[in-house]
Amino acid sequence: MKVLWNEHIVDRDQVKLDIEDRGYQYGDGIYEVIRVYHGQCYMLEEHMQRLTASAKKIKLALPYDVTLLKEQLKALIAVEKIDNGEVYLQITRGMYSPRNHQFPPVGTVTPVLTANAIPFERPTDMQERGLTATVIPDQRWLHCDIKSLSLLGNLLSLDEAIEKGFDDALLQRDGYFTEASASNVWFVIDGQLYTHPDGPLVLPGITKIKVRALCAELGISLHEEPVAISQLPQIQECFLTNSVWEIVPVVSIDGQMVGAGDRGPITTRLQQAYIDAI
Ligand SMILES: Cc1ncc(COP(=O)(O)O)c(C=O)c1O
């Protein structure tokens, strides 16, 4: 398997990472997951913009220019012969010794970039049948807009959901839904679509950008406003979005059917429009 290591595409076993890399020790770094369809990165420009924004928010200088990075990602997909799949890209602040919480002075540390590309088909079964979910407190920090490597809050939430016998967790903070363990969450109430506004409490999803545009095209009214947990009985449809899954219905929440307990009409329309856009 070939991977991207800084600016070079190399055999995976040639990569050398230091035990004092701050990404490894503190989760001090950022990442992106980019969908690949027919051998091409989907919405690559938007991913690069979010990567750049995340880097800025943690005072990390990208190791090299985004134009070159885009070229290298395309080369990686070509060399790995990925048709449908995903690229995982991460950048850590790099190695600094001895270990010290303080950000190293500028110029004393070199960020480390790695990326790999794997095949992954569209999860059409899950997109039809949907998932079950449970509502749990959002136990994450207050910078959820940064696509940070530190994902323990998300992982603990998913683990709790699975332990309770559900597929995923819908997170709630102060009585309002924020997002799911690894996706943005959307609700249909009175035939109108709602999702949490961008800001520090949620990740600004790339799929969200596309769904927003599709709503405008299809004439679906979209409100970027938080939905309260107390509105649960009014929810007619619920779905999750992320780059890898696209649009996936949530058919029950804490054992209560959402709508008719299957994929609803607005979800289905958006899924179809999403496929057409791809
Ligand atoms: C917490 C969280 N919210 C939202 C998303 C959706 O982001 P995107 O549509 O860019 O994949 C993700 C994706 O991994 C996520 O982890």
From TrEMBL:
Coiled coil: none
GO cellular component terms attached to this protein's record: cytosol
A GO BP annotation: carboxylic acid biosynthetic process
Single GO term (MF): D-alanine-2-oxoglutarate aminotransferase activity
Keyword flag NADP: no
Pfam family name, one: Aminotran_4
Gene3D superfamilies linked to this entry: 3.30.470.10, D-amino Acid Aminotransferase, subunit A, domain 2 (3.20.10.10)
Top-level taxon: Bacteria
Reaction(s) this enzyme catalyzes, per UniProt: D-alanine + 2-oxoglutarate = D-glutamate + pyruvate
Sequence similarity: Belongs to the class-IV pyridoxal-phosphate-dependent aminotransferase family.
Protein name: D-alanine aminotransferase
Lineage, highest ranks first: Bacteria, Bacillati, Bacillota, Bacilli, Lactobacillales
